[in-house]
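Page header: ASSEMBLY MODEL / two components / 653 residues total.
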Amino acid sequence: MVSKKLTIVNAQGFHMRPASTFATAMAKYSSDVVLKHNGSDVNAKSLMNIIAACIKCGNEIEVVATGADENEALAEAVQMIESGFGE
Amino acid sequence: MLKGIAASEGIGIGKVMIVEEHSLEYQPKQVADTDAELKRFRDAVEAFCEETAEQAEAVKKSAGEKEAEILMGHIYMIKDPGMIGTMEAQITGGQCAEAALESICDMFIEAFSATGDEVTAQRAADVKDIKTAILSILLGVKTVKISEAPAGTVLVAREVTPSMTAGINKDNIVGIVTETGSQTSHSAILARALEIPAVLSVEGATSKLSSGEQIIVDGSEGIVVTAPSEDDVQLYSAKRDAFLREKRELENYRGKKTTDADGNEYELFCNIGTPKDAVKAMEADGEGVGLFRTEFLFMDRNALPTEDEQFEAYKQAALVLKGKGLIIRTLDIGGDKEIPYLGLEKEENPFMGYRAIRYCLGHRDLFKSQLKAILRASAFGDVRIMFPLITAVEELRAGKELVEEAKADLRASSIEFDENIKIGVMTETAASGVIAHLLAKEADFFSIGTNDLTGYTMAADRGNSDVAYLYSPFQPSVLMMIQRIIKCAREAEIPVGMCGEAAANPMMIPLLLSFGLTEFSVSAPSVLKVRKNIAKWTKAEADAVVEKVMAMATEAEVTEYLKSIV
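Prediction written out in full:
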C-alpha cells in the first residue's frame, strides 16, 4: 500500500470534467485506488462516487493505492491533482 | 403578469410551447430471462449514449465547448461502474431494467442533493435527466421534438434539462420560461450561452400558460407578460430592439483600452466575491479586480478557514488574473451577519459597531492568518491589500504593522511573497473622507466604496424605506466627499478607484472623470457599458458638467440635470 496527502488546488474542486478524467485514468490500473476525504473512503475509479464526495478547492485528501501497480497509480493520481487537472 | 428569476437578459415575444412531461410509470417486476433483460437494458443505454453524443455535437456548434461537455458528462456518468455496473448486477439478480435504473439513479440523486453544495446538487439534475431519458427509451415514450419548434416559440417547461436544451435552435426559440431553476442552474447557463432571454422559477408556469398563447418574456427584469395588449407588444418590441442594438454596439469595446475622448487612459476593474468570479471578470474583459470580497470564505461553515485554505482561494484568483491587479479586501463582517462560530454579539447598532477593520484589529490571530494568506498569494500576481471601514489613521497604522509582522513570519519560514505589496484604504466613511489628506500620506491607494460612503455620510439606511430618499450618491454632501477623496489622493500621487455601484452609473461617470478618478471597479456585466460611457467624455466637457453640478444645492437638481445630459 502506498499513499500521499494532497490539497486540491483547482478553483472548482473535483467537478464533472476533472472527476471524469481522473476516474478514467485510475480505471486503467489493477490496484484499488481510494481517496480518503472527510473521514470517508471514496472509490477513485467511480466518477459518481467522487462527485458525491463533494471535494472542494482547498480540501485535503489522501490518495491510497493498493495492488500490483500501486506506485504507478499513485504517481499519476498525484500528478493530476497537483497540476489542478490542467485548469 | 408572472414573476420569476431574471436568468438570461433580453426580451422575447412569441407563442408558448409547453414541453410536457410524460408519465414514465411502469410495473416493477421480477424477470426470469435475465439475459434478455440485460440486453434490453444495454441497448437502451447504447441508444441513449448515441443520442447524447449527437446532441453534444450539435450543442458544441450552437453554444460552445463547455455546454457540450455537460452533455458528454451524461455519458461518463451512466458508464460509471457505480451506475451501469450496479444496475446490471441488479438486473442479473432478477430486477427489471426500469427498476434497476431508477433505484440506482435515485440513490445518487439523493446523495448529490444531500451534500447541500450547489454545484454537486446540480449534478443531481444531470442524473435525473439520464434517468428520464433512458426510462423513455425503455418504455418507448416519444418525447416532444424541441428541435422542430417553429420560429417565434417560447419554451415553457417545469425545468429545461440539458438534453432538452440540446434540441434548441436559437433562431426559432425566442424565450424560455421554467418553474424551477436559479441564476446558476444549467438552464440559466445554457440560456445565457445561447443568448435566449429566460425567466426561471415562475411558479405554476406550465399550468398557468397554454400552448399557442402569445406572451412576452423579459429576461432582464424576470417578468412574463401574459395576454399582452397591442401597446405591450409595441413597448417590448422597442425595448428588445434597443437591447440588441446596444449589445452589438458594446461588443465593439471588447479588447479595447479604457480611454476618455481625449485619449487619457483609465483602469477598468471588476468586483468579485469568489475565485470563480475572477474567471467571469476576465471573460467580461475586465482589466483586473478592484474589490475581491473575502467574506465567502468565512460564511456558511462551522469553523474559521485555515490560512492554507484562504491562500489557495487568493492564489487561484491571482493565477486567473495572470498578473493583472487584484485588490483583496480584508474581512468585512459585523454583528449584522450570521457567522455563528465567530460568536459575534448582536449589537444595538451593528453598522456603527464592532465590525470590519475594528473587529479584525481586535482579533489579531484571525487577521494575521488572512494577511499571511494574502501575502503568500502575492507571489503569484499583482496582489494588493485593502482595509475596509477605516475611520482613523491609527487603524491604518495598526493594520500595516500587522502586515509587517505577517511578512516577518513568512520570511522566517522562507515563504515567498511580494515585499512591496501595496496597502490601501477603502474610503467609505465620512471620517475617512474628511481626513483623506492624512490617510493619503500613509496609504498606497484609495478605493471609494460609495454604498457605505453614502449611507455613513447621509446617516441613512437604504434598506429603510422611510429614509431611503436620502440615500443617494448624488446628494451634494456625498459628491463633495467623493471629490475631496479623489483630490487628496491625486495630491499625494496615489491611485484612487471606486468600487461602489456608482462607478458604473452613466450619470456619475463624467463627475468621476473630472474629479480625477484613476480606476473604476464595476460588476462584470457592466464592463463594456462603462468603457463606452467613459469614451464619450472629453476632460473639458466633464469639467463643465462638474462646475454646474457642484454649484447645485439639492440632489433633485443634480439628478435632473445629469439625466438631461447623458
